[in-house]
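Recall from the previous lesson that a structure prediction takes nothing but the amino acid sequence as input. Here we apply that procedure to Adenine DNA glycosylase from Thermus filiformis. The sequence below is the only information supplied.
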Amino acid sequence: MDQGLKETLLAWYRATARPLPWRGEKDPYRVLVAEVLLQQTRAAQAAPYYHRFLKRFPTLEALAQAPLEEVLKVWAGAGYYARARNLHRLAQSVSELPRSREALLALPGVGPYTAAAVAALAFGERVGVVDGNVRRVLARFYALEDPSPQALWRLADALVEGVDPAAWNQALMDLGALVCTPRRPRCGDCPLSPSCRGREDPGAYPRPRRRSQKEEVLWALVLLGPGGVYLEKAEAGRYGGLYGVPLLDEKAFWERAKALGVAPRFLGQVRHELTHRRLRVRVWGARLEAPLEGLQDPSARPLSKLTQKVLGKALPLLAHEPVVSLPDAEA
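The prediction returns the following tokens.
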């Protein structure tokens, strides 16, 4: 790509840049928070979580000093909670962020995208940033059907020569988000269109990835009693550090209900999509007469979006259910 075409794209970017809250930000910590959110969250959805997180944890030091449970609670709703856990670990491992992509990659939970984004946007290092939008733009511009990640990173790095790294990388991201979209790209509005090798058949570049999702059925047990809802803390896995109601297969569900001495009623079901799984959760519940160890106020605990959906289905219905007694041993 020649320098003249690069300047054309940068001029388009200056005229049409998305008004995102982290645009123009040079504070490395704030750039880091934004880019970690953007790993798995669309820009428009990430904005309120960005504001909320920085209001509570305005500096790397403030994040390091906070308990993990509070960090997860503030992150609640953004999903992919490993991102919050890794941010917390990172804050506790350094007093300030290093300035290079290579050094940033050595930090907990920082991958190639985040390291490059912080290095380029906050520190001005001449490195490319490859996200899904940039991958699509480069693949179409150069007519690459199935480019390897390594090839795309080398190409992105080479293109930063002669331009401001922050503006250039964000221009490519915006072009992919606004014009060179996955479906129905607006080639007529694209500043790179005259030189784009994939313009005649943009849907062929890059070759679409097949994404398969398996459906899984889980059974949720919601127990409402004096003092709150029965919640368990996950110690590891996707929801490590979060609280939730028991989510079990059918056999384990009835074993747990029998052990607790409750006969739950079916309340309905909720659906929830993960990256590679579709969950269909059958929600059962009971309203308890007596306290039970583990009853907690759910608003005081960090909950996954799935748990919030389950409680949103169950609690309004359980509020009108007759109470049931537990065996003395469990009360």
